Amino acid sequence: MKNRFLLVLLSFACLGHAQTQYYVDNVGGNDSYTGTSENNAFRSLKHINAQTFTPGDTILFKRGGNWTGTLKPKGNGKAGNPIVISAYGAGQLPIIDAQGKSGENNAMSASIMLYNQEYWEIRNLEVQNFEKGNPARPTQKAGILILGKDAGTLKGFKFENLKISNVNGSLKTRTNGGLFFNIIADSIPENRIPTNFDGIYVNNCYFLNVDRGGFINQSFWRTRDMDSKFGELCKDGRVNNWFPSYNIIIENSKFENIGGNGLVTRVAKAPLVQNNLFVKCSSKTTGNASYPYNCDDALWQYNEACYTVYNEGDIDASGFDSDYLCKNTIIQYNYSHHNDWGGLLVCSWGKVVNAFNDGTIIRNNIFQDEKHHMIRFSGNITNTEISKNLFVTDAEIDDVMMWYKHWGDVWPDKTVLKDNIFYNEGTSNFLKLGETSNNTFTGNILYGSEFIDFNAFESVRDKKDLKSKIKEIKKVGKRRNFSTSEAEHVIQIMWPDIK
């Protein structure tokens, strides 16, 4: 499964021959220079923004430098020969910070912005966008904004070794964040062209102190229901215009102290999210560490989510989530622990006429020492499978293990819980079933304290071996250095045969 998008990654690796290297130095540079060597570097973002770059060009910022404003270069790369933005020299990553200001004709404040462009690679920078003064109505902002409008398919975006930090802003909007892909459309329907992205690759990036989301994307082309196809009428009478983005890969990255959701993919076909670490997400407002929304065939694997924060009055604060308008989501081989409001949410809002969430599979994950509950099933979700997971509880869980609830006056239907292991040292209550229907419970094993409300479990085959594995897993969860995901490590402890 890890090689699912190997061909896409190989296409990014083939960079071709660089046409021109441009250097930017905020201290020793001068905009009257040629910019083509370290000793003749340009100085300002404004001068770079005036240039039009071509395939193979490279724009290099001097390490240790600091630029205020928006980097908005022109031009397009091409397949195998993108335009590259990176760093040169020794020292700290170069910093670009818009400080909450919006340039002329910009849709929002962003430190780096691309509009209807494609084949760009950005790496080895620190991007900030901090609006000083703690304003009551902060500017809508992003660290990096990739904007598309009536352009068809925009291809080839790669982000590596970036630090995206200190992006403050409103917690009331889900479009304020670190790395934001946004597709909008003309106000006149006749001028609109279905638009999407093909090829978004994020690797080894660090998102720190970002409001409201770390990685986020959204699209105007998002309307659908469970059964209609593009151009057909949905249940609510609107036309299906769902035009998803493809080949989204987000891996090996860290999301820490994010004001709301750490990572959300929207309107996407088969996004892959793997080997990421989420620490202390939703630190300021309700949110889950990561999830797909309005996606088909999303795959989440080998991610670790921990210490998601529950703020008073929040409705979400879990490690993972399969959200509504999704089909066939797979969440596997992940490690969720010490989250304030459960390890997993599977949901769909029943009062939205078009809403659904069908075919979610949750398998071979480890959920350890979550607070309040383990899994919440909410609303009109159907055909959900929870299989071969390990659930480890301590005294922090003070409600139930499995919580079924109505959302929008609709209850979950057709949920299967099979072949899971429950290691219980916490709650005495297992289930809030409500009026959910057509549930299957089979082959599940309980070790530890029995539940007073449910006893349909099989016996543990090897208690000593299981207890030893859980001890090792707990040790990983208590480590002090949370730098990378340890999901693969703990999965190998529990299930050595999984590769």
From TrEMBL:
SMART domains according to UniProt: PbH1
Record InterPro entries: PbH1, Pectin_lyas_fold, Pectin_lyase_fold/virulence
Superkingdom, natural source: Bacteria
Classification via Gene3D superfamilies: Single-stranded right-handed beta-helix, Pectin lyase-like (2.160.20.10)
Keyword presence, Ribosomal protein: no
Entry keywords, A to Z: Signal
Secretion signal span: 1-18
Record-given protein name: Right handed beta helix region
Organism: Algibacter miyuki
